[in-house]
Amino acid sequence: MGAWAIAVHGGAGVDPNLPKERQEEAKRLLTHCLDIGISALRSNLTAIDVVELVVRELETDPLFNSGRGSALTDNGTVEMEASIMDGPKRRCGAVSGLSTVKNPVSLARLVMDKSPHSYLAFSGAEDFAKKQGVELVDNEYFITGDNVGMLKLAKEANSILFDYRIPTVGTCGAGAAAMESPLQMNGLPISVYAPETVGCVVVDKEGRCAAATSTGGLMNKMTGRIGDSPLIGSGTYACDLCGVSCTGEGEAIIRSTLAREVGAVMEYKGLNLHEAVDFVIKNRLDEGKAGLIAVSKNGEVACGFNTTGMFRGCATEDGFMEVGVW
């Protein structure tokens, strides 16, 4: 019997001007989700059950960019994506392009458990959801007033708006700020980055690792765009050594297969979890901006990011618990 550990995140790339009340609201939600996970682990739920349970809670709350409160496409609709992975035997499931599934992470779990495939998208994923009897809602359920306003701002700026919750200082100047931003994605200028994807990683008492990630993507993204969150090995990865969930600049995470890299350097370079996380953040992002949370089979927990901040929280069986932003 080993020791359990859990970590959650609500996105990397926090605006330095984020209001204090927004920070505290995020911390309360992360603490609440940690408490749910801790209670489940003490009740001997498996790691894969716990990551699904916690991410469902994050998807249900509109604070972060997943499930209800997801970022909007350039057409003003929601296209959500999620993935989940069970370390033992590296079983996995992923979904993209969801517009009516209330909890995308649970549909990803069903793809893993109830289908012969690992990844379903758009109409195929929606049809599978109906056959599985998951809870469906109108697309309007996911759309919030804040996001409608931020999509308008993004369209006025003619930009993918990454910091979709908090406008740059002086809303009237947001368009100019976006145009002048030194940040780029695939060579194109973007605005300040703060996507607020959610994720959870867990190792249970049996040393089983699991990971899950869920997101609405980017505000004002092209319809049909798929990011790193549903891509196994990029946004999510779990094996017999560790579980990893990533957040940040999706295209950079995809190029670096960031989540898998943590397990790879542990396996092939013999690094421990903390060393592995530090190594991939420093050496694998190629000027991209991202963060990740991770657990190891030995009950270790770690996080790393090269952004101004990352909404995150973690806890271990020995009583350690921490929630932070910066």
UniProtKB/TrEMBL annotation:
Protein EC: 3.4.19.5
Binding site residues for substrate: R225, I226, G227, D228, T247, G248, E249, G250
Keyword hit for Hydrolase: yes
Ion transport among keywords: no
First-tier enzyme category under EC: hydrolase
CDD domains for the chain: Asparaginase_2
Active site residues per record: T197
Site (Cleavage): E196, T197
Keyword list, A-Z: Autocatalytic cleavage, Hydrolase, Protease
Pfam families attached to this UniProt entry: Asparaginase_2 (PF01112)
GO MF annotation terms: asparaginase activity; beta-aspartyl-peptidase activity
One Gene Ontology biological process: proteolysis
Reaction(s) catalysed (UniProt annotation): Cleavage of a beta-linked Asp residue from the N-terminus of a polypeptide
Superkingdom assignment: Eukaryota
Subunit structure: Heterotetramer of two alpha and two beta chains arranged as a dimer of alpha/beta heterodimers.
Protein name in the entry: beta-aspartyl-peptidase
